[in-house]
């Protein structure tokens, strides 16, 4: 089986198409019969040709045999014998002529029969060929029509499938665009929220740092004030001043240490800011040492 329309090739070269023309087995049987008759006609023509050739050869052989016969001389015989001889020669000539004529007639008849058989075989072959070509043309036309139908149907199916594929692709693209738009919007919202939270954290950190620095400076000012008052009171009475100064210095030192601890607790987790506050507290200690006249080690 092969071909677009389910075509089937036969042993005589015919191409069958389902549902159209004659039944393949009928055509095959008719073609086989015509082919057999054609072969028989060719065989009969060949036999007659051989027979005609053999008869022509026989006639030619008889002619040569007669021509090669030696002449018979009967002059010494009597008149009756010569008369009989003449009759015999005439009869022989008549028989020879009749035989030659019959052989020629038979050769001509055989040649004519061979020619007729050959002509019949050729006519029969031409008829078979014509019928085969006519059948082939019908089958080709039917196959072409069916192929055209299949081609049109295939094109229609391809067009429909292409339309369905384009619609599905368009829908998928729209869904993808919508999903990407939603993701982009969600991403932008997350970025905006993260920026807002970061800004709030930075503002809170800056406010806390400003508050911590202000509080530390305020406590430093308070310590300076206390130290100033202590120094002022120390000038009024040596012993009382020294005792009061020692007590005030102890209080100031305790207060400064508390402030330092609180400040370090507040600044825990902010290493850079803690280092800055530590430097600030070193400055406070140095200021206290300057006010008391002691080194920072002695103050501690």
Question: Can you tell me about this structure?
Answer:
The chain has about 300 residues and is mainly alpha-helical. It has two domains: about 10-170; about 205-300. Helix content is about 85%, strand content about 0%. It contains five helices and two strands. It has helices at about 25-65, 80-235, 240-265, 270-290, 295-300, and strands spanning about 10, 15. The chain has a two-stranded antiparallel ribbon. Helix 1 packs antiparallel against helix 2, helix 2 (about 80-235) runs parallel beside helix 4 (about 270-290) and helix 3 (about 240-265) packs antiparallel against helix 4.
Summary tags:
two-stranded antiparallel sheet, 2 domains, mainly alpha, 300 residues, 5 helices, 85% helix
Please summarize what this structure is.
This protein has 300 residues and is mostly helical. Helix content is 85%, strand content 1%.
Shape: rod-shaped
Instruction: Give me the strand/helix succession.
Output: EEHHHHH
Q: Spans of 5+ residues with little confidence (pLDDT < 50)?
A: 1-20
Strand count, sense and barrel status of the largest sheet are:
2 strands, antiparallel
Would you spell out the secondary-structure blueprint of this structure?
Elements: E1 8-9, E2 15-16, H1 24-67, H2 79-234, H3 238-266, H4 271-292, H5 296-299
Antiparallel strand pairs: 1-2
Helix pairs in contact: 1-2, 2-3, 2-4, 3-4
């Amino acid at each position: 089986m092969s071909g677009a329309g389910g075509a089937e090739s036969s042993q005589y070269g015919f191409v069958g198409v389902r549902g159209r023309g004659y039944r393949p087995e009928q055509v095959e049987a008719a073609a086989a019969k015509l082919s057999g008759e054609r072969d028989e006609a060719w065989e009969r023509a060949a036999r007659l040709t051989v027979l005609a050739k053999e008869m022509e050869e026989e006639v030619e052989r008889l002619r040569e045999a007669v021509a090669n016969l030696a002449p018979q001389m009967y002059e010494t015989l009597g008149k009756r014998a010569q008369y009989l001889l003449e009759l015999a020669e005439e009869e022989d000539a008549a028989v020879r002529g009749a035989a030659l004529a019959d052989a020629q007639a038979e050769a001509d008849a055989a040649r004519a029969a061979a020619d007729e058989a050959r002509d019949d075989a050729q006519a029969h072959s031409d008829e078979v060929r014509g019928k085969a070509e006519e059948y082939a043309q019908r089958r080709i036309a039917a196959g072409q029509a069916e192929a055209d139908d299949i081609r049109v149907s295939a094109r229609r199916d391809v067009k429909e499938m292409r339309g369905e594929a384009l619609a599905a692709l368009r829908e998928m693209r729209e869904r993808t665009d919508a999903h990407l738009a939603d993701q982009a919007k969600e991403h932008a919202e997350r970025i905006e929220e993260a920026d807002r939270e970061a800004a709030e954290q930075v503002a809170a950190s800056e406010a806390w740092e400003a508050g911590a620095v202000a509080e530390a400076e305020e406590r430093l000012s308070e310590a300076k004030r206390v130290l100033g008052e202590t120094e002022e009171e120390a000038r009024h009475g040596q012993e009382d001043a020294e005792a009061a100064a020692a007590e005030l210095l102890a209080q100031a030192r305790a207060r400064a240490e508390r402030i330092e601890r609180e400040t370090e607790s507040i600044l825990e987790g902010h290493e850079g800011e803690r280092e800055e506050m530590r430097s600030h507290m070193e400055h406070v200690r140095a200021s206290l040492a300057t006010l008391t006249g002691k080194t920072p080690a002695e103050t501690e």
